[in-house]
Specification:
With 556 residues, this protein is mainly alpha-helical. It contains 24 helices and no strands. It comes from Kolteria novifilia.
């Protein structure tokens, strides 16, 4: 009973420590950490070193995969640039098992004591995050120490050892056990460290333990397959790459160890046993060699592997529609260029919103799902535009850049309001049963919405076009759109019952809100157009005065 209690207590401390490490490192791996990774993806050597560093820091290759997948979905990095980071993060994550292999039981007590006392009395976040990581590492090591101490009596029991060795002598059983271990713990490092602990306690020999370490490599992949079952398209590429690495490493070294055991040929395991008698160090090296081998292979074959995962996980139509067309992340340090690209992407976003009107041409029963699909595309594109907008280097802003930046922010607010109102209008016309009296109004709303947002798109894409003036005319309080809609509503509600009249009134109110939001946007575009015209006129005047060309980059 005492032995079981110590093993259980050790497991509890171990998982608590892993949780502390994970939670505190997530706080540390914020936007700056992501920007750091994004900057290094252009060079395979730099990205490999970044992956090694990130894996050693976070001690979780799964966390790195998730971070990189989110960055890739947001367009911050390309798949090819992310692959070395993921591959070498697996190598970096093997650091903690080596720490476990060290004989530092006394030092662990000091680490926990000092980190715990400081964590209790220091309140500043900049210090508590690091102390939380140190305390977590201490608890992990102490938990494993308690587990090993508790399991030692079992290792000395001949009956228990014979029972465990009987099962562990089957390589496939040991492999499946390792997969189950990392699947339950959701961490390769955790599975390896627990295996090391029981091997050090004498419960399992080095040979079977090596098969367990092989199985550990694919257990977390099973977790990703289950949790990512609904993920489709390019978002699966990096997850698939990690699964390929883990699966290939596990299979190759399982075969290698199996041949060594069955044929009795001294290969890798025999070499490691000759190198060191310490079982924990041997298993740490096995874990390192498996991950290092797959990282080196992927380093050489990064281009074919990128093409493979892109072919196996093609981009969906929805992803293509939600992917930015004009935004270039390397332009963030050049505010004028970044703001020009942003304006073009805002125009494309408006064009995407105009597709709401086309949903009214669909069968009424399928409209709601079409609205949801369109909203997801718009939401994803909006998030990427806003991320780009907030990432522009404001330290280099001139007064003119600051005005344009403020206009861009206000335009996004207006666009979000336009999108929300347009979506509400379409949903109102989609959720109710078909009413004959509504059809003329539906036609007017569809045509007016399409016309309005098309003009908004043209005015946004080309500030010097006459679309800006037409937009101001369309959105005027007594403009043609409001007159047409009011006339259509008046004709439709004439003599109808109160329920239909209330429905018409609700539609009219929402359409009026749409016009108001569009009017606000039109005024912002007018200000931006005037500012652009004044700047162009000023540059032309200066150029004419010196007899030079207005073409940027050319000197008179």
């Amino acid at each position: 009973m005492h032995t079981a209690g110590m093993i259980l207590a050790g497991l509890g401390l171990f998982f608590l420590g892993m949780r502390l490490i994970g939670d505190n490192l997530k706080k540390a791996s914020g936007q700056r950490f992501r920007e750091f990774l994004a900057k290094l993806t252009g060079n395979i050597w730099a990205s490999s070193l970044a992956g090694l560093f990130a894996g050693a820091l976070l001690q979780s290759s799964s966390a790195i995969v998730l971070i990189m997948a989110n960055m890739q979905a947001a367009g911050l990095i390309a798949v090819r640039g992310a692959l070395p980071i993921i591959a070498w993060s697996n190598v970096g994550a093997t650091v903690l098992p080596f720490v476990v292999a060290l004989d530092i039981e006394t030092e662990i007590f000091f680490v926990i004591g000092v980190a715990g006392i400081l964590r209790a009395f220091i309140k500043k976040d900049r210090y508590t995050t690091g102390l939380g990581v140190v305390l977590g590492v201490g608890l992990v090591l102490y938990g494993l120490y308690v587990m090993e101490t508790g399991a030692e009596p079992l290792g000395k029991s001949d009956s228990v050892r014979e029972l465990i060795q009987q099962f562990a002598s089957y390589p496939l059983f040991a492999f499946v056990l390792g997969a189950a271990l990392s699947f339950i713990t959701q961490s390769k490092s955790a599975g390896v460290m627990i295996t090391m602990t029981f091997a050090a306690a004498g419960l399992v020999e080095v040979g079977p333990a090596a098969f367990v370490v092989c199985g550990v490599q694919i257990g977390s992949s099973l977790t990703r397959r289950i949790t990512g079952a609904t993920v489709k398209g390019s978002a699966r590429r990096l997850l698939l790459f990690q699964d390929i690495l883990c699966g290939a490493g596990a299979f190759v070294f399982f075969v290698l160890f199996y041949v060594e055991q069955v044929a009795g040929i001294p290969l890798l395991l025999a070499t490691l046993i000759d190198f060191t008698p310490d079982v924990e160090t041997i298993l740490s090296l096995v874990n390192l060699i498996i991950n290092l081998s797959t990282a080196l292979v992927s380093f050489v074959l990064v281009v074919p592997m990128a093409l493979l995962v892109e072919k196996l996980c093609p981009t969906t139509e929805e992803e293509e529609a939600a992917a930015p067309k004009y935004l270039q992340w390397n332009a963030l340090s050049d505010p004028p260029a970044a703001l020009d690209l942003l304006r073009l992407e805002q125009g494309r976003l408006l064009d995407t919103i105009s597709a709401y009107a086309d949903i009214l041409n669909e069968d009424r029963n399928g409209r709601h799902m079409k609205v949801v699909e369109r909203y997801v595309i718009i939401r994803d594109l909006t998030e990427q535009i806003e991320t780009f907008l907030n990432s522009i280097d404001h330290h280099q802003f001139t007064p003119a850049d600051m005005r344009r930046f403020s206009l861009a922010q206000n335009k996004m607010v207006a666009i979000n309001s336009i999108e929300e109102t347009a979506r509400i209008l379409i949903e109102e016309l989609s959720k109710d049963a078909e009413v004959a009296e509504l059809e003329p109004v539906v036609d007017h709303i569809r045509d007016s919405l399409k016309r309005l947002i098309t003009v908004m798109t043209n005015a946004t894409m080309d500030l010097e076009s006459d679309a800006n003036q037409r937009l101001l005319e369309l959105t005027a309080d007594r403009g043609p759109l409001m007159r047409q809609i009011k006339r259509a509503f008046a004709e439709a509600v004439s003599g109808e019952n109160e329920e239909i009249r209330a429905q018409f009134f609700n539609l009219a109110t929402n359409f009026e809100r749409l016009i108001w939001s569009a009017q606000r946007y039109a005024k912002l575009i007018a200000r931006e157009s005037r500012s652009s015209t004044m700047e162009a006129t000023f540059l032309q005047t200066i150029s004419s005065a010196f007899g030079g060309s207005t073409t940027p980059g050319k000197s008179p």
